[in-house]
Design a protein that fits this description.
About 60% of the residues lie in helices and about 0% in strands. The protein is mainly α.
Length: about 130
Amino acid sequence: MPRPTSPPPRGAGILLTGERGRPALNGIAHVQRLVFRVLATIMWAAPAGAFGAMAAVVGATGTDALRSLGVVMLAFYLTCLLFVFVLLGPPDVGHQDGAGFDEATLMDDDTPPPATRSDDTALSPA
């Protein structure tokens, strides 16, 4: 099976062309500004859209929708609290160094971390 290769670095190629690549860089900058302005507009209008959607649901189903949303929110916050206080352990309030949790619990060499990113390794080589 052939080994996958990464695409050629086009951005570096455009930069290395010097002044001949300047129009391409300017075009990329214009498209970048356009995309981020559109995203900023969407982010600015999102709260109004969310409020309108919530109003439509409450108008159609009554307060049952709000009760269901409250149950989901309560379950989410309880799950967060359980994760913090059960999995990470109780906070160390008495320390003067400002550490919020006991480092011995978090940095135990025998146990893997409770969660890793996709590019992390759970058990690093010794």
